[in-house]
Amino acid sequence: MKNNRFARKLGIGSALSVIAIASFAPAATAQTAPIEPGVTDAAAVEPTSSDIIVTGTLIRNPNLTSASPVSVISDAEITKRAPNTVEELLRALPGVSPGIGSQVNNGANGTNTVDLRGLGVQRNLVLLDGARVVPALANGATDLNNIPLALVARAEVLTGGASTTYGADAVSGVVNFITKRDFTGLEVNFQNKILQSGDGYSFRGDITVGSNFADDRGNAVLSFGYTKIDPVYQTQPFSLFGITSTNNASGGVASGSSFTSVPTTISFPTSDLQVSQSGASLVPQYQGFNFNPYNIFQTPMIRKSVYAATHYDVADGVEFYARGMFTQNTIEQIIAPSGVFGNELTIPANNPYLNTTIRDQICTANGIALGATCNTNAALPLPGVYRRLVELGPRISNWENTVYDVRAGLKVDIAKSTQLDISGSYGRAEQSLTQSGYVITQRVQQALNATNTTTCTVTTGGCVPVNLFGQAGSISPAQVAFLQAQSTVRINTELYQARALLTGDVGTFLPTSDKAISYAIGAEYRKYKYDRIPDAFAQDPSALGGAGGAILPFSGGYDVKEAFGELLVPLVADKAFFKQLTLEAGVRYSSYNIDAPSNPSFDTTTYKGGATWEPVDGIRLRGTYQRAVRAPNIGELFAPTVTGLTSLGTDPCAGAAVTSNANLRAVCIAQGAPAASIGSIQNPSAGQANQTGGGNPNIRPEKADTFTAGLVIVPRGIIPNLTVSVDYYDIKINDAITSALPSDVMDACFANITAASAASSACTIIRRNPANGRLSGPTSTTFGLPTPLTNNGRYATDGIDLTVNYNRKFGDLALDLNFVGNWTDHLRFQASPSSPNRDCVGYYSANCGPSLGQIMPKFSWQQRTTLGAYGATASLLWRHINKVRYEPGLPALYSGVIRNGAGVSSALAGQTRNFNRIPAYNYLDLTLQFDVAKQYQLTIGVQNLLNAQPPVVGGQAGTTAANSGNTFPSTYDPLGRAFSAAVRFRF
Measured between alpha carbons, how far is 688 from 751 in angstroms, rounded to an integer? Predict the structure, then answer.
């Protein structure tokens, strides 16, 4: 049946392709880039036009070779990989750490982003033809879903500082998507993909048409795109049941992972009691909730896009150009049902759903005398109520993102080698978040205040009394209709840009070189605006059950004025041992003005210096040093302080051990734990503790020093068609805008408990659930760990990139070999001078890596082998991820036999697993391409050819965003073998 579904869907897609093409008469042949090896170094790609600007510099020079290492992903490689989104293409590159993407579920924000070198999505810049695109969110990151994939001729990735060239944010590098220029004809692409299991079907279709006009003085192109991706739920054998990672009594148990379960649990200071299966009494809490089957490994998305571009020679030496794009993305984040997460509630003693036995137990636990005092009590306290309202269905966050972005400019040739480029752009991103499936906690309290089954004490809003003490399904549809509501949040982001760039040369006057000295000077202005408008439910931290905290309104913005210049000096050319020696330098001055009542402002200066030396033909040495900066983004400056969720698996106050340590007991009580709860406090629910943090208008820009040094070998006379490049990089970020990690906050208090600790501010700033002493609970009363933003952080990473390309013909057989590898020596992160200086390379935990908790292996590489003959090619991509292990110095995770939990049966039961180590992983992707005719190309692919299953490490081995479904789904493939088929028609 599943295979039939696969064939059926592929057949439909292919049929649509044929129908679409049949409606067009053959036109002029589309101009496309020649097929190239996959990921290459820019040194192997020769510029073909004086208009080409190499990523990393603004100088316009057809003979320019950059001193900075730039990797190129060709259009041919994009076709082979069959990605649905640009994020899928970038995520697997060696040296790139996954950002928010299609396989991040709990923690998604409706966008797809890239994280270069694991330094954070806010520290790199995404460009389209060398220009910024309006950011999607307050953190300034660009949503990769807005990139017109059908028109991308190549993607250039520069890792290392580029702030001198592009301004702030380019601390860890840039990704520059270059679109096809002078496109003529018609090109239609249709792509289908489906998993071997029959799930996760996706379809991507693009139609692009272009033509020259006005006697070839101009060109215009128009492209339409549509993408639809189905969800993949975490129902595979390795992910179906949440497995506890911690090395304690519950470690290695495949069972419920969340304390908020069904039936209801009531947390009293001295015990946690759950309604029995029969609903007759309260019993010791015995069963958690298994949220895994509700969560997803592949985020559903519908994407619609339109892209148009034109350029026209108004007169000799005067060119007008413009581009505009519109995208509308609908993305759904799906997580387990809402509920009541530890809220303090009350219930009248004569509530119709409260039987005598449970009522008396509640009174006893609260110290209320049995008999008349208990029987007639109008408000029996329920200190902490936990009940998963499965009757409401899953929580769904529907993100609808609409982006408008237009850019226009004029290029004027002032002299033969001098050009003035003036451009302006405006972008607006509108994001609408609709949260559904959430219970309104205040309505739960209203529905508990009832003395019969039909009428609430307060009837406002059509209140229906609720049965909170039954099994799953005991809450009726009428009760559900009253308890739940939707919440909406609207976000608007705007970016205004204007730039004037003068490029040219000053001629050749050096006695050692006959090549001209080139320059680029200019000025730039950018203005950012941001506005977030949540409704009343979103703003109330106690309203939406399980929303993770309040979403408060805020507005902010800033503008920046910049002046910059770059210089390229061919110092020596065509001399002995100096075939070429070129120096380059640049500087950029930026003045920031913040839209705030105090109207603060600050200035930054960035600069760079580099050199390229080619002693003999075929050997090139290159190196750059750059001082880069990153100004604080709108979220870091203006976001209001709120309490949300963070990752924390263990709590020193949890369990019975605290009862024998008087100093530790005093600390827990000083943090707000009831004295009666000592000895029965539990670890944070589902490994998520509360944290309180927000923006800080007093933070200032980060400063980074980046250094690269490399060697490029092109031994044309010895081994033709071979290119080897090896580059060392070193990036250090000081005054980094960071907040303390959960473990930093905990260690500052609990690392050395003494008699004075209970009065120490490092301990008392941690605030616990007043009902049961936990670090998780209602965000309106449990503030958890303080994590304010400061400029006290530091990042440092260094490593080596290696790229090898080779191609050769053997008669009619063509061979292409491509290798891209990365060795990361260090990835250090220190939240403050007093925090541990963690090196996260090769490790995983809630502390590593610094941004989303994704894994940065010591070694990773990709190797592609392609054979082609007679219009057909077979290509095999080998992806390697080196072994990693749990962060040293932390309590070890579980290692042993996986056991079944209460009421569940796991397919992994009986297997021996070590959650502290993940072995090296290798994936193979096979692609077959057939040029059926000059205009037709068919591509068939199998991703994860050997159906490698991801590692199992449980649910608390990393952060919530990175560690989901018992694995790390953005690093390791949780989807299994997938099949794709694509057709491309060119006329």
Answer: 21
Predicted confidence (pLDDT) per residue in 619-639, tens digit: 999 999 999 999 999 999 999
Report pLDDT for 521. Answer: 97
What is the distance between the alpha carbons of residues 881 and 902, in angstroms, rounded to a whole number?
A: 36
Phi/psi-derived region of residue 47, left when phi > 0, alpha when psi is between -120 and 50, beta in every other case: beta
E strands within 95-184? 96-98, 114-116, 124-128, 131-132, 152-159, 173-179
Alpha-carbon span 205 to 857, nearest angstrom: 35
The CA distance from 349 to 374, in Å, is: 7
The CA angle 821-825-831, to the nearest 5 degrees, is 125
| Average pLDDT across the chain, whole number | 89
Question: Long-range contacts: 442-445, Cβ < 8 Å, 24+?
Answer: 442/542, 442/543, 443/482, 443/483, 443/485, 444/340, 444/343, 444/345, 444/468, 444/483, 444/545, 445/345, 445/346
pLDDT digits (tens, 9 = 90+) for 336-360: 999 999 889 999 999 999 999 999 9
Nearest of 780, 792, 747, 752 to residue 766 by alpha carbon: 747
Closest CA to 579 of 384, 407, 714: 714
Distance, in Å, from the CA atom of 332 to the CA atom of 434, rounded to the nearest integer, reads 10
Is there a domain that residue 440 lies in?
Answer: no
Q: Going by C-beta distance under 8 Å and a sequence separation of 6 or more, which residues neighbour residue 675?
A: 269, 669
Sheet of strand 785-786: strand arrangement: 642-647, 688-693, 785-786
Tokens of 214: 């006005």
β-sheet bridge partners, residue 175: 126, 157
Write the CB contacts of 930 (distance below 8 Å, at least 6 apart in sequence). Answer: 871, 872, 937, 938, 939
Let me know if residue 769 belongs to a domain.
no
- What's the CATH code of the domain at 131? 2.40.170.20
Rounded Cα gap, residues 792 and 833, in angstroms: 7
Is 47 within 8 Å of 72 (Cβ atoms)? no
For strand 185-195 and strand 202-213, is the pairing parallel, antiparallel, or unpaired?
A: antiparallel
Query: Which residue intervals of 780-825 are DSSP H helices?
Result: none
Domain assignment of residue 959, yes or no: yes
Closest CA to 165 of 176, 180, 154, 155: 176
Kindly report the CA angle at 916 between 915 and 919, in degrees rounded to 5? 90
pLDDT digits (tens, 9 = 90+) for 120-155: 999 999 999 999 999 988 999 999 999 998 889 999
Instruction: Tally the domains of the chain.
Output: 1
Which domain covers residue 930, as residue numbers? 2-235+298-335+398-433+490-639+697-742+788-986
Quick one: tokens of 742?
């959960």
Name every residue whose Cβ is closer than 8 Å to that of residue 367 and which is 6 or more positions away in sequence: none
Hey, what are 788's tokens?
A: 């304010």
The SS3 call for residue 415 is: strand
Residues 737-787 pLDDT 10s: 999 888 889 999 999 999 999 999 999 999 999 988 999 888 888 999 999
- Reduced to 3 states (helix: H, G, I; strand: E, B; else coil), residue 156 is strand
899 domain residue, yes or no: yes
pTM of the model: 0.89
